[in-house]
Design a protein that fits this description.
2 domains, Rossmann fold, alpha/beta, two-stranded antiparallel ribbon, 16 helices
Length: 358
């Protein structure tokens, strides 16, 4: 073990507040399937592997599993594998005895020990190096571990939850992850869908996040309009729920739905995908039309914003007729009027769910 100063011990605390389960799981079929699997697997004393893209809420799901399990009265201890330096992660996981290495001035329990009677959540487990993977496999096989510099075996008495956004099958093929460890942690696997695979959940998430950020930032941002909700449901969301959270935080802080539209314009894609025809030809004319429409949409949006959504003035600046502008706005999927800044009679969120969130 290389000499290193131990990092500050993190206490095994639970997440302060989880979203209501009807918000986290939502009405989509994809998330309802996840919910059913959690209900079946939470009470079983077997490792669970949580898969999914970055930002889909894997850690939150691990908390839900813990809270629905027989281990819910015990601690929930997280090991953020990529955040702990490679020279320290072994001591953080297994603990060490005083004098085991330079800087080990006192006995220190590891995360495995702190998780006794509860759940040990290993986030981004694919980031573990091969030597530590072998040691973790040994613990999972016989249920015992020892602190660094100690000879006493300690029993591992915690539920193991693991998560990764990587394709572990590819990692195994490339030699980056042990196949035997994969089989050991993959007794039950749960794959979280991306946000673009559960678009019907977006209105519920948007309203919940708006209320949360209003409380956090002491603001009174009104419900998001139906037009803007439609826009949000059309996005691809590469950052998933985490990206949606950032988007709602900006809205609450700035207090204007213009932030949703300006952000989309700023993130306009530089590269465009295309499909070949059945005979293998590339429809260049069709691709050029698509690029032109997207560029035209971004220009119209920016001019509308610069002119405070005055459509007649925008038409004058663009040197087109007012009627032509209305057609292009409708064709581009832009709102017909400036997004509302104040709450009106429209309910962007189902009334029965709003009451549950509060």
């Amino acid at each position: 073990m290389a000499s290193a100063a131990p990092i500050k011990q993190e206490l095994p605390v639970k997440q302060a507040e989880l979203p209501p389960d009807h918000i986290y799981f939502g009405p989509s079929e994809a998330m309802q399937a996840v919910r059913q699997k959690v209900e079946r697997a939470a009470g079983l004393n077997v490792p669970i592997l949580i898969l999914g893209e970055s930002g889909t809420g894997k850690e939150v799901l691990a908390h839900f599993i813990h809270d629905a399990s027989p281990w819910r009265k015990g601690p929930f201890v997280k090991v953020n594998c990529p955040a702990i330096p490679g020279t320290l992660i072994e001591s953080e996981l297994f603990g060490f005895q005083k004098g085991a290495f330079t800087g080990a001035n006192a006995n220190k329990p590891g995360r495995m020990e702190l998780a006794q009677g509860g759940s040990l959540f290993m986030d981004e487990i694919a980031e573990l190096d091969s030597s530590l993977q072998a040691k973790l496999l040994h613990v999972l096989q016989d249920g015992h571990f020892t602190r660094i510099g100690d000879h006493e075996e300690r029993r591992m008495d915690a539920r193991i939850l693991c998560a990764t956004n990587r394709n572990l099958a590819r990692e195994i093929e490339g030699g980056g992850f042990r196949a035997d460890l994969f089989y050991r942690i993959n007794v039950i696997s749960i794959t979280l869908p991306s946000l673009r695979e559960r678009r019907e959940d977006i209105p519920y998430l948007v309203e919940y996040l708006r209320l949360q950020f209003n409380r956090r930032f002491q603001r009174e941002a009104p419900p998001v309009s139906k037009e803007t909700l439609h826009l949000l449901q059309q996005r691809e969301w590469p950052g998933n729920v985490r990206e949606l959270e950032n988007c709602l935080a900006r809205y609450v802080v700035l207090g204007s739905e213009d932030t949703f539209y300006s952000e989309r314009a700023e993130k306009a894609p530089v590269h465009f995908t295309y499909e070949t025809t059945a005979d293998g030809n590339i429809p260049l004319k069709r691709i050029a039309q698509q690029v032109t429409r997207r560029m035209e949409r971004d220009v119209i949006l920016k001019v509308l914003q610069a002119n405070h959504w005055n459509r007649r003035r925008t038409a004058e600046v663009l040197k087109i007729s007012y009627r032509a502008l209305l057609y292009k706005v409708r064709q581009a999927g832009l709102p017909a009027k400036r997004p509302r800044r104040k709450q009106d009679g429209d309910a962007a969120f189902p009334a029965e769910s709003t009451a549950q969130v509060d």
